[in-house]
């Protein structure tokens, strides 16, 4: 996740949409963005999809890390600027794999349906919030995006919980953490932000001039 | 009395939660009451659009979008509870599937409108250069192309001095005189300047995908490829700057504002499957059938909308 462009523009870039966590970003540093992102993402999504199709409930212990490990192939390419022609497929692919893994793992392992639903709602709302807050000109800082753990962090937490045999507990803790962080962070950042007209012209430092009327 | 648009948004949230509570009943009475409340939710969006016309502050825009999703998920949760009570197997899994479909449709729309990011490596960044990271054995001062024959193969050209320049290797050789040595597969590669050799050619960045516009206009029966995306279709995706997908919902109730003919614009809006269309699908299916049909309809609609969004993509490539 790069530093935002000098004016905090309303544009959303694809690397921001990837929603990488610590591990994925660190792996991207290794190759300094020299790898194209689509092939490793496709490969990882394919392996994770096959694992889900065979049923994650057959996995146990350390093998629960297999889907996230496969998808972490895509983390190596996280430093790429994503300017290839089909690189727009990468964020939806990552999200689809993450959502479906959370659903398959929870549902196949007997976590309560409502809990899985609420966790998915929290993750989806986090993505909606990040995109639309960027569009209105208040991009959430990288620190906050990292605190939401990224797709790799969330999947790793759940895999670790499953490996230890505490899967419902891990779902509950992760849901609570994400929901509280989402609400708290949105509230404090909106309280601190100047509420200006969304489509007001930007001044030279990228901000919006205060209303004089 | 003045009602602010964000008050309208909050009223919509309360109404949607109430609709979700009615849907938990699982019977026909609950389905009808919930459907009517969903209609009221769409109405609040229309009203909020009217109120918002003059002023639109960023908190209001953000609240409308995020609370719009939140209320939709609340409706799905209500449907899942009602479905479980009515004996639908795996109602929560279906509800989660519908949630995922909606979120992915949003994700495809967001990715379609997104820009490319900044590269990790810049000359000032102090990180190792990408070629250094990938191939540490390479001499950094050596800027010559590595393997000329491989480059030539990848680009579909004859290697510069690999062997003699016979007729097949010349780019300007006429198609007729390749019969001596050239096989059928490499003749078009030589004459077309790499236009064949389908799998491994490279196209310059930012150039349109060759042949896409023709194939597409042929498939859709349209004239110019530029006219393919009507303005209404682009507006159906969430967040054109600030205009959210509620605007098409507002327009869907009244007359379409612009576009090539009312039925077409309406169709394009429906193809984007905005929230009003999703609520209409929910109301229709839950009243007639049960929660599982509702969720399957939502998943199918969102999948179609995402596929249409992806198929429309390469035309917007010019801005990059």
UniProtKB/TrEMBL annotation, chain A:
Residues 14-206 form the DUF5941 domain. InterPro entries: DUF5941. It comes from the Bacteria. Keywords: Membrane, Transmembrane, Transmembrane helix. The chain crosses the membrane at residues 30-52, 59-79, 99-125, 155-184. It holds the Pfam family DUF5941. This is DUF5941 domain-containing protein.
């Amino acid at each position: 996740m790069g530093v935002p462009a000098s004016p905090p523009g309303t544009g959303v870039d694809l690397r921001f949409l990837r929603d990488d966590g610590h591990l994925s970003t660190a792996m991207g540093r290794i190759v300094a963005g020299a790898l194209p992102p689509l092939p490793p993402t496709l490969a990882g999504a394919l392996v994770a999809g096959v694992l889900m199709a065979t049923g994650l409930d057959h996995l146990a212990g350390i093998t629960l890390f297999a889907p996230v490990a496969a998808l972490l192939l895509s983390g190596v390419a996280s430093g790429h600027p994503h300017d290839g022609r089909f690189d727009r497929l990468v964020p939806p692919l990552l999200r689809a794999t993450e959502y479906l893994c959370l659903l398959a793992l929870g549902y196949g392992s007997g976590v309560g349906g409502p809990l899985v639903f609420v966790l998915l709602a929290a993750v989806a709302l986090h993505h909606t919030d990040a995109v639309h807050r960027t569009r209105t000109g208040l991009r959430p800082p990288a620190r906050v995006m990292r605190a939401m753990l990224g797709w790799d962090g969330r999947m790793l937490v759940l895999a670790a919980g499953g490996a230890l045999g505490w899967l419902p507990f891990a779902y509950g803790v992760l849901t609570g953490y994400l929901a509280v962080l989402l609400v708290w962070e949105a509230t404090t950042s909106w309280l601190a932000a100047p509420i200006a007209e969304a489509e007001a012209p930007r001044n030279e430092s990228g901000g919006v001039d205060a209303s004089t009327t | 009395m003045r009602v602010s648009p964000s008050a309208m948004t909050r009223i919509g949230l309360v109404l949607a939660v109430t609709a979700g509570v009615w849907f938990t009943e699982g019977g026909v009475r609950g389905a009808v009451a919930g459907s009517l409340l969903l209609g009221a939710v769409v109405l609040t969006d229309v009203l909020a659009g009217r109120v918002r016309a003059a002023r639109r502050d960023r908190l209001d825009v953000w609240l409308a979008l995020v609370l719009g999703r939140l209320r939709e998920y609340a409706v799905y949760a209500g449907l899942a509870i009602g479905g479980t009570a009515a004996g639908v197997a795996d109602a929560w899994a279906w509800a989660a599937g519908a949630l995922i479909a909606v979120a992915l449709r949003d994700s495809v729309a967001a990715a379609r409108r997104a820009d490319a990011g900044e590269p990790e490596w810049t000359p000032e960044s102090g990180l190792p250069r990408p070629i250094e990271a990938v191939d540490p054995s390479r001499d950094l001062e050596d800027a010559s192309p590595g393997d000329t024959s491989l480059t030539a193969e990848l680009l579909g050209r004859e290697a510069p001095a690999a062997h003699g320049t016979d007729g097949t290797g010349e780019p300007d050789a006429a198609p007729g005189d390749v019969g001596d040595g050239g096989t059928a597969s490499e003749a078009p590669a030589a004459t077309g300047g790499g236009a064949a050799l389908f799998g491994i050619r490279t196209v310059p960045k930012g150039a349109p995908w060759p042949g896409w516009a023709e194939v597409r206009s042929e498939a859709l029966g349209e004239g110019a490829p530029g006219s393919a995306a009507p303005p209404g279709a682009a507006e159906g995706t969430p967040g054109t700057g600030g205009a959210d997908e509620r605007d098409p919902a507002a327009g869907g109730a009244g007359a379409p504002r612009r576009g090539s003919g009312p039925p077409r614009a309406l169709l394009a809006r429906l193809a984007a499957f905005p929230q009003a269309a999703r609520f209409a699908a929910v109301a229709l299916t839950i009243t007639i059938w049960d929660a599982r049909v509702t969720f399957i309809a939502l998943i199918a609609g969102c999948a179609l909308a995402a596929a249409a969004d992806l198929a429309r993509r390469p035309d917007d490539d010019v801005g990059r």
